[in-house]
Amino acid sequence: MQLKGKRVLITGGTRGIGKCMVKELINEGVTHLAIIARDKKSLKELSESYPEVKFLRISGDVGNIDVLREAAARIEDKWGYLDVLINNAGIVSAGPMEELPDEEIYDQVAVNYTAILLLTKYCIPLLKSSEEGSILNISSGLGLIGMPFYAVYGSTKAAIRQFSDSMRRELAPFNVSVTCSYPTATDTDMMQKFEGMEMDSPELVAKRSLEGLMNKELHVVFGGEEREKDSKLNFMEPSKYDNKVTQIYEQFKESSAGHKAM
Ligand SMILES: NC(=O)c1ccc[n+]([C@@H]2O[C@H](COP(=O)([O-])OP(=O)(O)OC[C@H]3O[C@@H](n4cnc5c(N)ncnc54)[C@H](OP(=O)(O)O)[C@@H]3O)[C@@H](O)[C@H]2O)c1
Question: Name one Pfam family in it (predicted).
Fold first, then answer.
């Protein structure tokens, strides 16, 4: 699948992985881009840095159902269809489960998961109107392997994987493909408060995720062979993976303490 001339909606396209995807999309020839993010100023600045591209700037919180409805309505009104939906916006708040504030549990589910369900729902008729529709969902390595202190974040990301599999099978007769990407630690604002870990660059994660979309790959998993081995072990023999986690428990607790980007 080529991206040239495609009409694309991306959530969280103003910073981090999303911003790098915007750059890549434009390099690949996308000329019509709808972006949802909360901060109006960064939306404006981003659109001004690509004067050749026609932007639909939708400022608002994806946790707000009206923002999602408005996005789909504006796309229907302006373009009449949508080729690519990229569900990228996400937030994190780590910590021992019993200490996480209730609001941060609700917000992580609303932004990381419910928003994806609803935005996808609203965009399906638009994607069906495309000659070749596609969806890219950004999950996380923590959606493949459940880690302590990320029970909420990780379970929203695991839900995205399941949703992606269901949607791929449901939309196959309509020529709409679904790709799900699982970055590991990536050097963005989201990771500023996470201590001590080698990270991928957001450029690499953006490029590889979009390659996956273009090649209609089902899953794009980051972290190399080691991660693949860990995922298999976690699935086939979870108690063996429990032992691995026991060995790094204190270190991981320390690294994740205060890890919050909301
Ligand atoms: N960085 C990592 O290590 C990593 C690893 C695995 C998976 N991921 C996933 O990759 C995706 C992108 O992460 P990132 O690291 O690039 O994050 P980031 O640097 O924090 O950027 C987040 C983007 O999403 C937007 N956003 C956040 N909350 C929003 C909300 N409620 N409504 C609308 N827009 C919102 C932000 O803009 P505004 O603040 O203006 O709204 C920003 O454009 C997320 O789904 C994340 O979970 C990241």
Answer: adh_short
Query: Atom of ligand 1 at shortest distance to CA of 87?
Result: 45
Residue 137, phi then psi, degrees to nearest 5: -105, 130
* Residues 191 and 205 sit within 8 Å (Cβ to Cβ): no
Which uninterrupted H or E stretch holds 247? helix 238-256
Q: With cut-offs at 50, 70 and 90, classify the pLDDT of residue 197.
A: confident
Domain parsing of the chain, residue ranges: 7-261
Pocket test for ligand 1, best of 112, 156, 188, 210 (most atoms within 8 A of CB): 188
- Residue 201, helix vs strand vs coil: coil
Half-sphere exposure of 66 (CA within 13 A, CB side): 2
- The count of other CB atoms within 10 Å of the CB of residue 73 is 11
Q: Give the distance (Å) from ligand 1 centre to CA of residue 52.
A: 25
Question: How many angstroms separate the alpha carbon of residue 217 from the centre of ligand 1?
Answer: 22
> What dotted CATH number matches 7-261?
3.40.50.720
Radius of gyration of the chain (CA): 18
Q: How far is the CA of 240 from the centre of ligand 1 (A)?
A: 32
Q: pLDDT for 23-58, tens place per residue?
A: 999 999 999 999 999 999 999 999 999 999 999 999
In whole angstroms, give the CA distance from residue 102 to residue 106.
6
Q: What is the pLDDT of residue 78?
A: 98
Tokens of 195: 């201590």
Angle (CA) 53 175 89, round 5°? 50
Query: Could you read off the pLDDT of 131-159 as tens digits, one per residue?
Result: 999 999 999 999 999 999 999 999 999 99
> Is 32's C-beta closer than 6 angstroms to any atom of ligand 1?
no
